[in-house]
Design goal:
The complex is a heterodimer of chains A (about 140) and B (about 400). Chain A has about 140 residues and is of the alpha+beta class. Chain A has helices at about 15-20, 25-30, 60-70, 125-130; strands spanning about 10-15, 35-45, 50-55, 75-80, 85, 105, 115, 135-140. Chain A folds into 2 domains: about 1-80, Alpha-Beta Plaits, CATH 3.30.70; about 85-140, Alpha-Beta Plaits (2-Layer Sandwich). Chain A is built from 4 helices and 8 strands; from the N terminus they run E-H-H-E-E-H-E-E-E-E-H-E. In chain A, strand 2 and strand 3 form a beta hairpin. The longest helix of chain A has 13 residues, at about 60-70. Chain B has about 400 residues and is an alpha+beta fold. The chains are: A alpha+beta (about 140), B alpha+beta (about 400). The interface of A and B includes residues 97, 107, 129 and 130 of A.
Chain lengths: ~140, ~400
Amino acid sequence: MESESKYKKIVYLTFPPDVSNKPVVCNLTRLYDLCFNILKAQITPRQDGHMTIEIFGDPQAFEDAMSYLKEHRVKVHPITQKISRDEQTCVHCGMCTALCPTRALAVDTVTRLVVFDPDKCSACGICTNVCPVKAMEVFPENGNH
Amino acid sequence: MSHEVTKTISEINARIKSGQAVVVTAREMTDIVRAKGKVKAAREVDVVTTGTFSPMCSSGMLFNFGQEPPVMRASKVRLNNVQCHAGLAAVDAYLGCTEPRRDDPLNKVHPGTFKYGGGHVIEDLLRGKAVRLWCESYVTDCYPRAALEKDITLAGLKTAMLLNPRNCYQNYNVAVNLTSRIIYTYMGPLKPGAKNANFATAGALSPLFNDPYFRTIGLGTKIFLGGAVGYVLGAGTQHDPKPKRTERGLPLSAAGTLMVRGDLKGMNPRYVRGVSILGYGCSLAVGVGIPIPILNEDMAFFTGVSDADILMPVKDYGHDYPQGIPRVLGHVTYEELLSGRVVVNGSETAAVPLTSLSMSLEVAQKLKEWIEKGEFTLTEAQERIVSE
């Protein structure tokens, strides 16, 4: 299973209006032999495209694919720029782990602290509402809340 | 019944004052009793400190905001637009932590986020923030003022105490959802088909698991409350004096509760946090730590409780709980819950904590430090809490 291969990364892509209607993402597989899983995708009324995508495969192929996307004016943002935890606010209760779909938030069974792994996070935003002390923050996509 | 070891609270206090008392946390005591046995542990240890940090919905602030002549007897009081209970004398009022802001959309768009309520007002006051006071009243010959609106701070309040009618549940339900849709409860979000089991309490660190028959904890017991000194006022509301118990005396249901009080002005917002529970409402997470004097080997035995000894009842919050059906799906140990996986109705499910165990341990350690430094001595309970 590709989804179990070692290298995987979640990125957030934005497509300008004249690119959002073209087949670009499928070329990640056709040209670079990468596998992907689209976590979230949206085309706004202004025809801007937004996509959160998890990519699996060879690290070099991943870098080449990102260059390909940039050549086609697709902006690539690491997901870590989209979500953060306020360490001063978090009380490490663990309630967020109930709904975190990618297990980016998990309780360390030894320290009993809630560990946040941004590499696993898909920035779905569910934790921002579940967290009782509002320690998780997702930055809005192009000002859309 | 005679004991091999007997100590009194005044003897322990004398040792605390001379810096000789041996104080350990409930977590440390588990290992000590296991290694040395209860009699030797009772000889060596004077005080065991416990701790918990969890949302405790039956909490609030009793306050007096002082007069601003012409004087007033307020009949409606709000703080930052959160309604307080004002059916008390003149400028006394009580703010409950679960009261949402008056303009909160509640669950109109389900699940509601309940961003701000009584608990958040209390935390804001502790953080030194100014809070908007709004009052209204009918007028009398002795109280001519009809309205008052101004900013207040904690330092400016005449009196502000945390007065919690029901805290520190002895044990608690493990919540699952057997229906086919997600539900949002005071025990957190519960996925359908019992895909997660949410649990509260700090287990072997929790105060009332360490004194299951309330032999030392009673009215007048001095405690750690929200980072300051507080007191137990007696049994909390819904206290169950006669629960079913395990062989070592631990209740198999929620059972005992405490009513507590402390001066808010000395408290630390790190241990008093306003919380918003998705789809349910507002609440207050409170840090409570209770010292248990090791008066004899029985108390050493009780405080030697381990997470594996604690059995917690699993209940369905999808159908049974809302309908008031007391069915218990089974019991799981706290140790199993901490592992992150438990078996419910024959299949494995994720165990999700709601009580911060790291903060609970911090409370127990803080209390231990206070006692070791000689700043905090123990008190004798003046009235027992019924528990058998």
